[in-house]
From TrEMBL:
It comes from the Bacteria. This is Multiple sugar transport system substrate-binding protein. Residues 1-26 form the signal peptide. The lineage of its organism: Bacteria, Bacillati, Actinomycetota, Actinomycetes, Micrococcales. InterPro entries: Bact_solute-bd_prot1, SBP. Keywords: Signal, Sugar transport, Transport. The keyword Transport applies. It comes from Antiquaquibacter oligotrophicus.
Amino acid sequence: MFVSTRSRSRTVAAIGLLIATSAVLAACGRADSTPEATRAAVDDEPATGVVDVWAPSGDANYLDTLLEGFRDDNPDATVNVTVIPVNEYVQKIQAAIASDTLPDVALVKADGTLLSGTWSAVPDGLVELEDFFPGTLALGQIDGVQYLVPWYNNVRVLLYRSDFAEKAGVEAPTTWDEWVPFLEGLREGGAAQPFGSDVSWGTDTGLFVSTLAKSAGAELVSEDGTEWQVDTPEMHAAFEQYQALFADGLTSPDGPTFLDQVSSFTSGQIGSLVTGPWVLAQFNEAVGEEWMQDNLGVAMLPAGPAGSVGMLVGGGWTVSDSSDNPDAAWKVIRYLGQVDTELQQYEGFGSLPPRTTAWEEADLTDDAYLEPFFEQMETASASPAIATWDQFTKMLGGQAEKMIRGGVSIDDVLAEGQSLADSIGTGR
């Protein structure tokens, strides 16, 4: 049966826990609690003309289907959606900024891309900003001005085969010390490979290592935002923990890859993985609710020395300053920001809605699968607003590969990583 690490009755309180995260996000220097709009309101007339939309693969894979309703309601508007591979997206956006060839609408991550100064502020009254989780709003604000209409705001948690765990008599780990014994138990219970880590050895790997580092108490960037901090005791502890997950064949450096994780998990090839909420819909499509009830467990990430600290990632929709059709572009975003549209996206792809009202309307707070995601949000740490964040995480992923595949010592990996990070810089 389904296993959660917390009482199901606490799920209803999750909205309050998410709201509490606003203080954490505000501490990042990103946002004012009351966003302002600096652009005139958009009218209610049907949209006309051409609107080009860019988004990274993943959450946006369902976007073209999602916009069918907008096209029906706005027959004189043409919306062209371009879904770009997620590993290429930031580079494509940066190149478009440099060449002044941005699309009308873009899904912008809450990272350095937002700081480029090429985006328009959200028009007054476009959507009910007070309905969104404060954390999602904070990720899209600069100096109190809202630039993003939130679209997704995710943390990753631990998913595991509860049937294997029950057979071996082990429970989901709550600390790093319990993690390896738990994985050994999953193998005893039937998992061919107890843990399926992302082995792209790029940005996603680096994000996982960064999450471990935050759980060890690391500050990835200096207080003034001018220097990356890699060669530290906290980062050393994170790399040690990452290395431990590969010991004795607990994880394979050869995969399965991200695209094969669902099939590998349901077949029993891997017994656990760290992933986001989108995978729940993929599991439901692949094997159905009954299988999930009997075999899927969801838990918060095991806590390191500084606790169970997830890495908050997210982004939202915005319009480029160079758009030739800004009113129609904002109308597309207004449609995407409606409760019904967000719930359709959740049903179609599994993206968690950024509005509290959407959660309430669909009774998502009563879903036991989502409870650990809420609880992980309570201690989530926002990714830093640094222009080179993606380069930094990609570098960390490469250093992790040198340790796992190349056998390079952690001390040497971090020393070289610090040098590489200094070369990358923070853009400040």
